[in-house]
Amino acid sequence: MIILDKLSKSFNGIKVLDDLNIKFEDKKITVVIGRSGGGKSVMLKHIIGLMQPDSGRVLINGIDINLLKKKELNELRKKFGMVFQDGALLDSLNVFENVAFPLRRHMKISENEIKKKVFSVLEDVGLEGHDKKMPSEISGGMRKRVGVARALILNPEIMLFDEPTTGLDPIMSDVINNLIISMHDKFNFTGIIISHDIAGAYKTGDIIAMLYEGKIIEYGQSEAFKNSVNPVVKQFVSGSMEGPISI
Amino acid sequence: MNIIIKLLSPFEKIGNFVIYTVNELGSIVIYIWDMILSVAAYFINLENLIDQMIFIGMDSFSVIGLTGLFTGMVLSLQAYYAAKIIGVTYMIGPTVALSMLRELGPVLTALMITARCGSSMASEIGTMRVTEQIDALEVMAVDPYYFLSVPRILAAMIMLPVMAVLCSLIGIIGGYIVYVYFLGLNHVTYIDKIYQYVKLSDIYNGLLKAVFFGAILSIISTYKGFQTSGGAKGVGKFTTQAVVLSSIYILFADYILTSILF
Predict the structure, then answer these.
(1) pTM of the complete model
(2) What is the complex's ipTM, to 2 decimals?
(3) Domain that holds residue A99
(4) CA separation (Å) from B181 to A206, A246, B69, B92, B187?
(5) Last residue of a domain, one of A128, A155, A182
(6) Number of structural domains in chain A
(7) How many angstroms away from the CA of B48 is the closest CA of chain A?
(8) Mind telling me how many Å the CA of A229 is from chain B's nearest CA?
(9) Same domain flag for A16 and A67
């Protein structure tokens, strides 16, 4: 269980997270939606310890990650996989080496075993035959799939997805959403997705939450979320200019 | 009221500069400490280290060689005009050798490697920063200081003295070419006087300088890389800062080290 407890973070006096409280349930996919620049990525970076809060706690299975030493935090991070918005592939390494990178760093296994694992996960994400390509030679959708493969290679307990469908055409977005669902079924991880793609959220999320003005203003299962009476949620879901959300 | 604000503005600028400088120095000290902790916590990755040594050393050889050659040739020529006046042309060899070994070899090597490799270190790490590759390393439980900075800093500290010696030797050869073939002077005198006047301490003090310069340029360049923000424009800005600051600190350190060592 991941719990964000009264998390606050400000940048240059502007509160991005404001006493934020949320629980992410084990083995379920929670999608956090919200406006661009609304603090979703900041929240995600707090969960993995890339940012430290001004106040509040990030509890992973009861452990406050901000109290951990560097080495302890790195040990905990091995339980995580994260897919970045643009893949964040190491651009000096080809697809195979990018996916093999966590294995080479953290597991003492033979080259043959590395090859077997990498080719298996590349097949899972539909990228067999692309292993020798450099990140600059593949499309945005493929980069995200390589990112998914790299994040999954150590069989993480928790997967974080930072806007997995942003910048993709609707068909490729659906490919990525289906990939998340199938990988969740196969690896049974706890998933946290941040997105502003409503259709994708309904498709992939067991639970949907909405972040607005630094707080979670709605939290519930897909159906309950669709029927929310909160005017902010209603406006966001409908994509209307008119409503309480200031532009 | 406006006059008071105008009068105070220079003090405000000075205050801002002092705060910025103290903040920057503090950040560099924390950065160096983080790297020391990284080195203490993990074994050095030899593969990365060797890659960087090749990049800083072998790949820079032609640039350093040409710099040394032309500097030695110019030194020999300039020394000739002065030495001829007072009839001490036999001192051109030691002048070239001592200038190259004690001063120009280490300094020019450091400045050329700052331009060639320091800029590359800053822009490469900076690009990784703005494209979230460094965040990705951290998420994969890889210490980015250990993975990116430590091999570059160690490689620079190891290769700078080697390249400085090569630069000095090629400079001395350049001086010899001008002395013997263009000025038509005796080659035995050139070599003999170098043996007579150059001491071993001139060589190893020059090497010690090069080690410090290697540390300075690589620490500043990688630090600026990690500081990068603001997309492609930010990468350009922080790369420029890395080169300018490294060059200034090298020249400043050169004065301090020269006054201590020689």
Answers:
(1) 0.85
(2) 0.88
(3) 87-155
(4) 84, 80, 15, 14, 9
(5) A155
(6) 2
(7) 13
(8) 37
(9) yes
